[in-house]
Amino acid sequence: MPTAPPEDPESTAPGDSGGPGPHEPNLHEPSLDEQIAAYQREFGELDPQVEKVVSALGRLNRRMNVAYGRQVATLGISNSEWEVLKTLVLAGAPYRMGPGELAKRLGLTPAAMTHRIDRMAAEGLVTRDRDEANRVRVIVELTDEGRTKWLEAMRMATRFEADLLQDLSTEEQGVLGELLIRVLRRVEFAQPDAGGRLTDLD
Questions:
Q1: Which segments of 143-169 does DSSP mark as H helices, in order?
Q2: How many whole angstroms separate alpha carbon 138 and alpha carbon 80?
Q3: Exposure string (b/e) for 130-164, b if CB count within 10 Å is 16 or more?
Q4: 156-165 contacts, C-beta under 8 A, 24 or more apart
Q5: Which of 7, 11, 21, 23 is packed most tightly, with the most Cβ within 10 A?
Q6: pTM for this structure?
Q7: Which segment of 11-15, 32-36, 52-56 scores lowest on mean pLDDT?
Q8: Cα separations (Å) of 114 from 12, 13, 86, 155?
Q9: How many CB atoms lie under 10 A from the CB of residue 3?
Q10: Cβ–Cβ < 8 Å for 129, 138
Q11: pLDDT (tens digit, 9 = 90+) per residue, 142-195?
Q12: DSSP-derived pairing of the beta strands 126-131 and 96-97
């Protein structure tokens, strides 16, 4: 599954942007070559090689996020709920965190985090209780149901990702991974505070 926060399909109703809905092909999107040619026409300083890389990454990320969103939707959860499940699992057993720490990890405001936890607690994906050692502190904990949803999502994602990379050899996958990590490190160095969201999606 993606490590960066995915787009939340709940945040925008299909067609709100004026484009195609989630299950409709985008018949008006130009090919990468057409897009780059148009950019070069309007902006002569463009490096077409660089633009091909970043545009391909952008399109790939968008389509992967849509695919992941459709997968988790079949499990009855949203991308935003998947983010919380993933964060709790990454924390390790017993899969517990405070809402404030969760909000920071996900780049959300406390109010948005509270709304998300309310929804997930009602769905049985997490529990929210007072810390026995500090009654002022609230603890969010993954439930068995939440962990089951996470495991099911991971199984679906693993199959999708294997299919996605099937045209690359094991060696090519390794090289691609290392190259992307180098690019990621550059972005992380230049934009160290860009791991969360610019705005809440809830």
A1: 144-164
A2: 20
A3: eeeeeeeeebbebbeebbebbeebeebbeeeeeee
A4: 156/71, 156/74, 156/75, 157/1, 157/68, 157/71, 160/67, 160/68, 160/71, 164/64
A5: 7
A6: 0.73
A7: 11-15
A8: 20, 22, 17, 29
A9: 9
A10: yes
A11: 999 999 999 999 999 999 999 999 999 999 999 999 999 999 999 889 888 776
A12: unpaired
H/E stretch holding 135 reads strand 134-142
Q: Which two tokens stand for residue 27?
A: 């018949």
Helical ranges in the chain per DSSP H:
32-42, 48-74, 79-91, 99-106, 110-122, 144-164, 170-190
Checking if the pLDDT of 126 tops 50, the result is yes
Amino acid identity at 15 = G
Whether 88 contacts 95, CB under 8 Å: yes
